[in-house]
């Protein structure tokens, strides 16, 4: 992906990270339900961030970023479930949780800034 901005780059790299981790889980543990949900929500973060860049109004932009934030919180939930069900190693969990928490902070900050500029 080309360098579009820190949030787009971070969410894209995070989606790839989650896909790689979930592939390992699937191949090792044959776990499909939690990993499918985790991949779905993790990839949706960046998709909505990317879509927000093409919005025609500030309100639509905020809405797309809010959806991304919701997906990020959901992804964090799935990562905790994968860890606590012994499907995901603590090392991978910590790295992934740090990444998603950074994305959440970036999204919240962007949403607040966009709302101030309405």
Explain the overall architecture:
- By secondary structure, this protein is mainly α.
- It has one domain: de novo design (two linked rop proteins).
- Helix content is 83%, strand content 0%.
- The chain has 4 helices and no strands.
- The protein has helices at 6-29, 33-52, 58-84, 90-116.
- The longest helix has 27 residues, at 58-84.
- The model has no long low-confidence stretch (mean pLDDT 94).
Task: Please describe the topology of this protein.
Elements: H1 6-29, H2 33-52, H3 58-84, H4 90-116
Helix pairs in contact: 1-2, 1-4, 2-3, 3-4
Q: Per DSSP, what share of the residues sits in E-state strands of 2 or more residues?
A: under 5%
CATH fold-level name: de novo design (two linked rop proteins)
Task: Assign the structural class, choosing from mainly alpha, mainly beta, alpha/beta, alpha+beta, or little secondary structure.
Answer: mainly alpha
- List segments where confidence is low: pLDDT < 50 over at least 5 consecutive residues: none
Helix content: over 70%
Number of helices in the DSSP assignment: 4
Key words describing this protein structure:
118 residues; mainly alpha; de novo design (two linked rop proteins); elongated
Q: Would you summarize the structure shown here?
A:
The protein has 118 residues and is mostly helical.
């Amino acid at each position: 992906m080309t360098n579009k901005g820190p949030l787009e780059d971070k969410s894209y790299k995070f989606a790839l990270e989650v896909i790689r981790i979930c592939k390992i889980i699937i191949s090792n543990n044959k776990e499909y339900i939690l990993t499918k949900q985790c991949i779905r929500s993790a990839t949706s973060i960046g998709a909505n961030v990317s879509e927000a860049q093409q919005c025609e109004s500030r309100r639509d932009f905020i809405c797309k970023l809010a959806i991304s934030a919701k997906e990020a919180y959901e992804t964090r939930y799935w990562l905790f479930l994968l860890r606590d069900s012994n499907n995901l190693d603590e090392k991978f969990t910590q790295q992934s949780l740090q990444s998603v928490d950074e994305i959440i902070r970036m999204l919240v900050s962007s949403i607040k800034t966009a709302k101030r500029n309405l």
